[in-house]
Specification:
Layout: H1 2-19, H2 23-93, H3 99-105
């Protein structure tokens, strides 16, 4: 971007030197040059702001999605732990039916 601005200024200055305008025209030409250069800079700043806004919105959306995923995994993990506890309790309450288990419990 800076290189483009430098090239733009060089072209305008070389044209300016060839034409050798009057003193009043010099101020007009300089003002015109400044307006053109600043307009290009403003457009670039606005483009960068728009890109950053898009990135911010994407990051916000992805953050919300990740939070939902984590919440879902936490719920699933809690349900799995509850199920395992129920299974373990049920197995602990069962009476041994295998002869080796009966001898050990006696």
């Amino acid at each position: 971007m800076e290189g483009e601005i430098r090239e733009f200024v060089r072209r305008d200055v070389s044209v300016f030197r060839r034409n050798r305008p009057e003193a009043g025209d010099n101020a007009d030409n300089i003002n015109s040059l400044i307006q053109r250069v600043s307009a290009q800079s403003l457009l670039e700043v606005e483009r960068v702001i728009n890109e950053l806004t898009n990135v911010r919105d994407m990051l916000r959306t992805e953050g919300e999605r990740v939070q939902r995923e984590i919440s879902g995994y936490a719920s699933l993990s809690q349900a799995a732990m509850t199920s395992m506890k129920i299974i373990a309790d049920s197995l602990g309450q069962m009476q041994p039916t295998h002869p080796a288990q009966i001898r050990r419990s006696s």
